[in-house]
Structures are given as structure tokens and as C-alpha cells.
Specification:
Bound molecules: nicotinamide-adenine-dinucleotide
Strand content: 5-15%
Structural class: alpha/beta
Number of helices: 18
Shape: globular
Largest sheet: 8 strands, mixed
Helix content: 40-55%
Radius of gyration: 23 Å
């Protein structure tokens, strides 16, 4: 198969590289020249474990290439994937589909023969029909089909998720498109990974419903965590006791500082708007959005309490600012609410993050970036764990506490226990929900 991948972000690049590893011939295109220049030099513009070597292998095998020129990428392609961003539209919470529709029009202008135009971006119900309409209007002569193929990969584990998915969802409205998509995903089909074929609208809905459900699960346990703190329960034990029930499952039941990232905030917001537009309010999702904001504010209150009711004049070391470990993605990270509250309250904040600095420097003005957790903790009044990178999971707590001006620890990822902290010499310790 010959595949064109439009957009080389977290989804487009991983998908393009993995498709080439299946044996397909893949051309990835991006309109950001800096990204393409990096890719042509063999550098990966994002941090995603394992992506660099997989990319190198497939470029060397001649199956994977990069270009800024959409016409070159699309020429002769059997399937053209649109994997551009669908951020929240300013002002109204809807998904901004400008990039998707612009890409569809560009593709229409460049196609040279039959192809399936596949939307991989997360898009509201009706978008694939609109993509179809745009292409038909731009090129009435063209023989093509559209397909909806939402992506479920997680940043930080993206390659494994792509290569060993729980399922692949494909929405089609023609047999020919189904056959082409079957060929694209044949290596997964042969290894018995489930491929769910459905209509376009259901495929689009599956993605939003899945993300809203996961955001709900996280938010549910975060709300239970607040109650645990009041009544003397331990949310970690509660999660374990709940999660062992097969109907519930243990994933996404870890209490923390609120969900963030490039998907849950924008997708819950878009789903809420879609519901309102169709007079079927998605009240659970609307509540989840509201509660998640409250969770982040609760974290700020917790930290302020720990500082004796004011951040002013305190030195605070923050470990981890990306929205989760193993990614450099800072989009909607809880740190973007919590750290500015500390800086704005008069604290001097030091930040350590293994990959977050490149993105984070512009987003977190007024903080000092350090390389090492121990250096950051030295003479600090408070240490805050915001993202559970592996290197923060086995800190020498005694060394940390011993070097601080006032040994206080706020572990917002529940890595350490109160007993660990006390034994290491911390005078004060808070976690989430315990
Ligand atoms: N990031 C994730 O973990 C994830 C997971 C599942 C689904 N998604 C969805 O996938 C889509 C892409 O997300 P992302 O995080 O990869 O976005 P991103 O912002 O990282 O990347 C999008 C890329 O598309 C490029 N682009 C935009 N218009 C273009 C055009 N006309 N021609 C060529 N290139 C163009 C941009 O320059 C950018 O490099 C979104 O809809 C998102 O909701 C993301």
C-alpha cells in the first residue's frame, strides 16, 4: 500500500512510522518547515520512547520519507490520512476543524486517482461527511471514498498502543473503502487484533465517548479522593478494592492533580458542545469538566496550606510539569494552573522535568529550570511532585529532606507514603486522598 500521512504531530508521526513498519510505503507531510527539516535530518521533533529507532529503521529501508509538498505525498496514494490538530476553538469550546477542512481541500486538489481519504484526527459527528462534500465540490471528477479511523494511542506508550491496539475502529460507507482499510491494517488483523467496522458517524462518536468516559473515571476517583481525606480513608486502597472488580477495572483510577493533556480537556469540551447543539446536553461530561477544574484548584489550596497560608517568599521545587511521564507534551497540563498560582502568589519556583523544558519555558514564565531533583530541593521550603516520571519514584528522601530549609513534601501522584516521608525526616507531608 502507498500511504500519505498529513500532519507529523504526536499522532501523524507515530502512525506514519508504524504503518511503514507494517511494510507500507509511507510519505509524511507537514506544513511546518522546521519539523520537516528535523525529520529529514533524522531527528524526531517530539519525545516519544522508541520512535527514533523505529523511524531510522524504516527510513533506511526506503519505506518512509518526509516532505513539505502535499502533492508529492498524495501522488499515487491508496490511502491519505488526515492527522492534523483539532484544538478547542477559541471562545466556544467546539473542536476547531479549520485544519481538517483545509487539508481535505488540499488533498482534493492533489489526488491523481482513486484513494480513501481517512480522518484520523478526533472530529465531531458529521465531519467526515463534510470532508466528503468538500472533496466532491473541489473535484467533482474524482473517484474517492472517505473513512473515519480515530486514533486511541497514548503519548508515552504510543508505539506499543499502535502496534498492539485494544481495537482499531474504522467507519466507512463503501465496500471499496472497507477493502482498502482492511489492507492498511492487515498486519494487525492477521495477529487477531479486533477491527471494528462501522458507519462514519458511529466511528466519530466512539472516540469522543471513549475519551469522555476515561476522563469521567479519573474525575470520579479524584472526587472520591477529596472525600477520603475528610473521612480518613486511603484512596489508593479504595482504588485497588474497586479496580479488582472486573466490571470496573483498575486503569484510570489513580487519584492525582486532575486530568490534562492534548485530548481529554478538548474532547470533553467538544462533546459537551455537540450535546448542547443537538439539545441533548451531556450532563455527566459537563460535570466532569467542572469538577476537574475544581480538582486543580483544590491542589493549589493544599499547597498553599502547606506553606502556612501564603506562597509569598517561599522557595518551591516542582518535580515534573508535563501532563504525564514519558512525553514532552505540556498541553493543558495541571502544572499550567498550579505553577502560575505559586509564582503569582510570590513564591520562587524551581522546576525539574526530564523532557518538559523545551515546551515549558514559554508556558511557565518566571520559574528557574534545573536538571536535578536534589539540586532543586536544596534550601527549598516545599517539594512538590506533579508528574510521576520514573526518576522521581525512587528519590533518596532522606537526602532531599536533609537539604531543604523546611522539609515539606507534597506528593500529588501518591508515590510515597506518610510513613516514608516521616522516616526520611519530612516535617510535613500531603498526598491526594489519603
Ligand atoms: N496527541 C495524542 O495523544 C492524540 C491521541 C489520539 C488522537 N489525537 C488526535 O489526533 C489529532 C492530531 O493530534 P496531535 O497531537 O498529533 O496534533 P499536533 O498538533 O501534535 O500535530 C498536528 C500537525 O499537523 C500539521 N498540519 C496542520 N495542517 C496541516 C496541513 N494542511 N498540511 C500538513 N500538515 C498540517 C501541523 O503543522 C502539526 O505538525 C487531533 O485531532 C487529536 O485530537 C491525538
Amino acid at each position: 500500500m502507498k500511504i500519505a500521512m498529513i500532519g507529523t504531530g504526536y499522532v501523524g508521526l507515530v502512525s506514519g512510522v508504524c504503518f511503514s513498519d507494517f511494510g507500507h510505503e509511507v510519505v509524511c507531510v507537514d506544513k511546518n518547515p522546521a519539523k520537516i527539516e528535523m525529520l529529514l535530518r533524522g531527528e524526531v521533533p517530539i519525545y516519544e520512547p522508541g520512535l527514533d529507532s523505529l523511524m531510522e529503521r524504516n527510513v533506511a529501508a526506503g519505506r518512509l520519507s518526509f516532505t513539505e509538498d502535499l502533492a508529492t505525498a498524495v501522488d499515487g496514494a491508496d490511502a491519505v490520512f488526515i492527522a492534523v490538530g483539532t484544538p478547542t476553538r477559541r471562545g466556544d469550546g467546539h473542536a476547531d476543524l479549520t485544519y481538517v477542512y483545509a487539508a481535505a481541500e488540499e488533498v482534493a486538489n492533489c489526488l491523481t486517482g482513486y484513494a480513501v481519504v481517512v480522518t484520523k484526527s478526533t472530529v465531531p459527528v458529521g465531519t467526515n461527511r463534510e470532508v466528503e462534500r468538500i472533496i466532491r465540490e473541489t473535484r467533482p471528477d474524482l473517484d474517492f471514498d472517505v473513512a473515519s479511523n480515530p486514533e486511541f494511542l497514548r503519548e508515552g506508550a504510543a508505539i506499543d498502543d499502535f502496534m498492539r491496539p485494544d481495537r482499531v475502529v474504522v467507519g466507512v460507507n463503501s465496500e471499496r473503502a472497507k477493502e482498502t482499510m482492511g489492507e492498511v491494517y492487515r498486519p494487525l488483523f492477521l495477529r487477531d487484533f479486533p477491527i471494528v467496522y462501522t458507519d462514519l458517524e458511529s466511528a466519530e462518536m466512539i472516540k469522543y465517548a471513549a475519551n469522555a468516559f476515561l476522563a469521567t473515571k479519573i474525575t470520579f476517583i479524584n472526587e472520591i479522593a477529596a472525600l477520603c481525606e475528610r473521612v480518613g480513608a486511603d484512596v489508593k486502597a479504595v482504588s485497588k478494592g474497586m479496580g479488582l472488580d472486573g466490571r470496573i477495572g483498575n486503569k484510570f483510577l489513580h487519584a492525582g492533580p486532575g486530568y490534562g493533556g492534548s485530548c481529554f480537556p478538548k474532547d470533553t469540551s467538544a462533546l459537551a458542545r455537540i450535546g448542547q447543539d443537538h439539545s441533548v446536553p451531556q450532563e455527566i461530561t459537563e460535570t466532569v469538566i467542572r469538577v476537574n477544574e475544581a480538582v486543580k484548584r483544590r491542589m493549589i489550596d493544599k499547597l498553599r496550606d502547606l506553606c502556612g497560608d501564603s506562597f509569598n517568599g517561599k522557595t518551591i521545587a516542582v518535580l515534573g510539569v508535563t501532563f504525564k511521564p514519558n512525553t514532552d507534551d505540556m498541553r493543558e497540563s495541571p502544572s499550567l494552573t498550579i505553577v502560575p498560582a505559586m509564582v503569582g502568589g510570590g513564591a520562587s519556583v524551581r522546576v525539574v522535568d526530564p523532557q518538559g523544558r523545551r515546551e515549558g519555558e514559554a508556558l511557565l514564565p518566571g520559574v528557574a529550570w534545573l536538571e536535578d531533583a536534589y539540586e532543586a530541593a536544596k534550601d527549598a521550603d516545599l517539594l512538590v511532585i506533579l508528574t510521576e516520571w520514573n526518576e522521581f519514584r525512587a528519590l533518596d528522601l532522606e537526602r532531599v529532606a536533609g537539604s531543604m530549609a523546611t522539609p515539606r513534601l507534597a506528593d500529588l501522584r501518591n508515590i510515597y507514603t506518610a510513613a516514608d516521608a516521616k522516616a526520611a525526616g519530612f516535617e510535613e507531608f500531603v498526598a491526594v486522598g489519603r
